[in-house]
Amino acid sequence: MAITVIISLQLLTKLLYYTPITILASIILFVLPGLIDIKEAYNIWKVDKMDFLACIGAFLGVIMSFSKVTISILWPKIEMLGRIQGTDVFCSVRHE
After folding, report:
1. Boundaries of each SLC26A/SulP transporter domain copy (predicted)?
2. Confidence (pLDDT) at 42
3. Which of 59, 61, 67, 76 is the most exposed place for a label (fewest CB within 10 A)?
């Protein structure tokens, strides 16, 4: 599997370079549900509860990270800058 990914990256990098990010994101979102294996998580629950907690913790960490990135894209922090007179320095307009 890893060799296939490496070969694909080597051969397809030039083709994917000009592909819009939204298209690449839609490809990832299309493949994402296949990566979640509910039956295996249930088997982990039956075998070892602590491993299941680690599995759930990792899953929640990925969800929270994805949410943080999405929120920062939807509501970026915007700072209005002004030039300090007589210099080439810019600072926040709110700065006193």
Report:
1. 1-56
2. 93
3. 76
